[in-house]
Amino acid sequence: MANFTEFQKKVIDAKLDNILVSAAAGSGKTTVLVERIIRKIMAGELSLDSVLVVTFTKAAASNMQAKIDKAIRNVIRENSSNLELVNRLKRQLEILPNAYIQTL
């Protein structure tokens, strides 16, 4: 897990369902959002078929999807003995190609 600033931790842990993250380029927005999404999936609070992620470029959307994929695969590898979690995460990998991670 990355070393997050206090503000980033607040975004990751925010109880709100809808959230807007606006910050300068290179500030860690994608990393923060991926962490938030992964934690909510792990907790059983979220499925990728109920998420809308909007970015400004196709490259950013593709990058976000790739980072979510990598993060899910890492969690599966690290929790291979937790079959319930692994099955939930594998389902998310199936959903990911059609997830609403798009541009404006």
Helices and strands in order:
Blueprint: H1 6-13, H2 29-42, E1 52-55, H3 58-78, H4 83-95, E2 100-103
Parallel strand pairs: 1-2
Helix pairs in contact: 1-2, 2-3, 3-4
Structure report:
This protein has 104 residues and is mainly α. Helix content is 54%, strand content 8%. It contains four helices and two strands. It has a two-stranded parallel sheet with strand order 1-2. Helix 2 (29-42) crosses helix 3 and helix 3 (58-78) packs antiparallel against helix 4 (83-95). The relative contact order is 0.16.
Quick gist of this model?
This protein is mostly helical and 104 residues long.
Mean pLDDT comes to 91
Secondary-structure element string: HHEHHE
Structural class: mainly alpha
Total number of beta strands: 2
Number of helices: 4
How are strands sequenced across the largest beta sheet? 1-2
Can you tag this structure with a few keywords?
54% helix; mainly alpha; 104 residues
